Amino acid sequence: MAGHSKWSNIKHRKGAQDKRRSKIFTRLIKDITVAIKENNNNGDPETNPALRNAIQNARGENMPKDNIERAIKKASGADADSYDQITFEGYGPHGIAIFIECTTDNTNRTVANIRAIFNKHNGTLGTNGSLEFIFNRTGVFTFDKENLDWDLDELQLELIEGGATSYDEEEDIFVVYTDYKDFGTMSALLEKLKLEPKNAELQRIPVTTKELELEKAKDILKIIDAFEDDDDVQNVFHNMEATEEVLAHLES
């Protein structure tokens, strides 16, 4: 899986430049709400690992502590919002596979919006399971290297116990991958080692990627932006190769 951090961090690099912080916070609040509701309204992060992880990710995005506490209090109450988690699979222009994860309080609205975005951008909404052979569901733990007081070679040996399958290293980040079944095991090991990742989530990593010239890649970036602008969309995954040219365009 070496080199996949470049692919998976398209959204992280874009997120760092994204001025629409309220949208990011809205999605994080949904994660907190779902973590509480799916664990019998348990708003205690000490006994709710999913909530603990959601809080950790919110901190990684610099969500204020007061916002996090309000989200937990509201989600734990009787009048908390109720969400369903649904996914969509399809193809964008130029044959790029796109997998979308949504958290919604109105499924009919979400289905209509996702279909409309595919149609507007010359894409095709497929059936669930149609992209199963293209993506592997993978645990991805991202660390800021400056906050890691470890020799990375020693750390890699330690993390094998948590199910680490591979690693990626860039200038400022260190990424650890696990099988999705080992996500909880790795989370527990990191707590034991007192290591807090900037972000920990299940991603859908493409088995293979498809390289496009920049002008065609821009078409994919447009449809990704359209999906991410929808408030019901939590994550967008795709199999477009993150070439240096594409990354330079994102950072320009």
Overall domain count: 3
In CATH, what is the homologous superfamily of the largest domain?
YebC, transcriptional regulation domain
Strand and helix order: HHHHHEEHEEHEEHEHEH
The CATH architecture of the largest domain can be named as 2-Layer Sandwich
- Number of helical elements: 10
The level 1 CATH classification of the largest domain is Alpha Beta
Mean pLDDT: 89
Summarize this, please?
By secondary structure, the chain is of the alpha+beta class. It has 10 helices and 8 strands.
Structural summary, described in words:
This protein has 252 residues and is of the alpha+beta class. The protein has 3 domains: 4-76, Arc Repressor Mutant, subunit A (Orthogonal Bundle); 84-130 and 210-251, Alpha-Beta Plaits, CATH 3.30.70.980; 135-206, 2-Layer Sandwich (Alpha-Beta Plaits). Helix content is 44%, strand content 22%. The protein is built from 10 helices and 8 strands. It has helices at residues 4-8, 10-17, 21-37, 49-60, 65-76, 107-120, 152-159, 183-192, 214-229, 244-251; strands at residues 84-91, 97-104, 124-125, 135-144, 164-169, 173-179, 199-206, 233-238. The strands form 2 sheets. It has a 4-stranded antiparallel sheet. Strands 5-6-4-7 form a 4-stranded antiparallel sheet. Helix 3 (21-37) runs antiparallel to helix 4 (49-60) and helix 3 (21-37) runs parallel beside helix 5 (65-76). The radius of gyration is 18 Å and the shape is globular. Mean pLDDT is 89; it is low at 12-17.
